Amino acid sequence: MTNRLLSTTTRLLSRRLLPHGRHHRTNHFSTTTTATTNDASSSKNENIFSKITFIGTGKMSQAMLSPLISQNLQTPSSITAYDVSDAALSKVETLYPGVQTATSIPEAIHNSNLIVYGVKPQNVEMVHSEIRRAKLESQGNNNEDDENEGGCVVRDDAILLSVVAGIPISNYLLGTSLTRIARSMPNTPAQIGAGITVWSCTPTTIDAHDRKRINTVLNSFGKTVFVEDENFIDMSTSISGSGPAYVFLLMEAMVDAGVHMGFSRETATTLVHHTLLGSTKFAMETGEHPAVLRNSVTSPAGTTASAIYELENGKFRTVIKDAIWACYRRSLEMGGQCSQVGPNRQTTPTMTTSSAVPGGMSGIDNGGGSGSGSGSHHPVEPPMGEMGVQSSFGNKVL
Questions:
Q1: What's the pLDDT at 117?
Q2: CA distances (Å), 369 to each of 24, 350, 361, in order?
Q3: CB 175 within 8 A of CB 125
Q4: Where are the alpha helices (DSSP H) in 262-391?
């Protein structure tokens, strides 16, 4: 029921807010929605790409794979999946009949013109090495005019689409020797078709036609924002990428407070869910500044004013801002970039070479190593006495 409600809300807001969005469009950003993509796809049986390969079959890969099939954007037989886990591949075969599975990365990317990186950041270099090996094999087959018997063919026009957090486009260019790279940052609500994805690509090797095809893939599970400057992707990681976790933490705190006051957990959860959903929908449809909306709820010397006083006194908005800056810095660190950005940060980081930087590239000593003056992001103390919570997604393959 909740999924259907969220999907309906997303479609409604997409239609109502589209004229609003045109007024805010700049040279650096462009936004599109699922509705516009589906309208543009008049031929339902024509694949977007001749073959799409998913390396890694975790939640985000499945969030992409499922709508591609359900919306008739890609036939199952034109999709290949690879995962190090045999159980994960078996689950893909069960959930998506007709989708091909492969036992190795070279086999999976054979003749594919869209390769989706859906792995953890720490596994990126391993995938790079496999793609380099496959490309060398492919070149050898071409030299011997024996590509049909020799195995893997890595297409020259293959596009690499990454959904991995923190890893910059330059890392994929150097690590794989492929020249057509798109980097994206989706978020968790993509799993129900209500995601928001910020993405960018190599400007000289991916033309407008291919950008449209990539956008169609990303639009299948929500809304997209294209940015010409890749730096905005790391910034978006701290707002939209990790943002759902902030909302879930607020949600958890509000539900727990309701239970403490005497509501059943079920009732408290319903109240909080619909308060957050309705407030978000109201803010989007009215287009008002959040401060205006907050003031409209806050009567002088009233109940809301008392609550806002405690939030402000506890530096609620400062903590939120600090959390977003900390997330942004960590995203930069994961890509081997300088994380000395934001309030109270050094402006002259020192260069160093570190094996921790993906792809063996030169990194920056951002103050996070041993012997440095200040940490690269806010230290986080472990929660005390926090109860473990079993997720409903606990049995899903990551």
A1: 96
A2: 41, 12, 17
A3: yes
A4: 265-286, 290-297, 303-313, 316-334
- pLDDT number for residue 143: 57
208 phi and psi, to 5 degrees? -60, -40
CB 211 within 8 A of CB 226: yes
| CA 228 centroid distance within chain | 17
Confidence (pLDDT) at 45: 61
| Nearest in space to 128 (alpha carbons), one of 64, 171, 187 | 171
Question: Would residue 316 be called left, alpha or beta, if left means φ above 0 and alpha means ψ between -120 and 50 degrees?
Answer: alpha
Q: Write down the pLDDT at residue 369.
A: 38
Q: Match 């590239």 to its residue by tokens.
A: 361
Pull the structure tokens for residue 353: 């070479």
What is the predicted pLDDT for the residue at 31? 59
d(CA 227, CA 237): 13
Report whether 41 contacts 73 (CB < 8 A).
yes
- For the chain, which ranges sit under pLDDT 70? 1-45, 140-151, 346-398
Q: Report whether 78 contacts 50 (CB < 8 A).
A: yes
**Distance between CA atoms of residues 77 and 72, nearest Å:** 12
**What separation in angstroms does the CA of 46 have from each of 51, 108, 120, 156, 363?**
12, 21, 31, 22, 44
The rounded distance, in Å, linking the Cα atoms of 238 and 231 is 12
pLDDT of residue 46: 85
CA distances from 5 to 18, 187, 248, 273 (A): 20, 19, 18, 11
The reported pLDDT for the residue numbered 137 is 80
Say which residue the tokens 């989007």 belong to. Answer: 284
pLDDT score for 110: 94
Measured in degrees and rounded to the nearest 5, phi and psi for residue 79 equal -120, 130
This prediction has a pTM of: 0.75
Paired residues of 55 in beta bridges: 82, 117
Exposure string of 362-384, with b = 16+ CB inside 10 Å and e = fewer, is: ebbbbbbeeeeeeebbeeeeeee
DSSP three-state, residue 75: coil
Q: Would you tell me how many other CB atoms lie within 10 Å of the CB of residue 62?
A: 24
348: left (phi over 0), alpha (psi -120 to 50) or beta: beta
Determine phi and psi for 150, rounding to 5 degrees.
-80, -20
d(CA 121, CA 257): 36
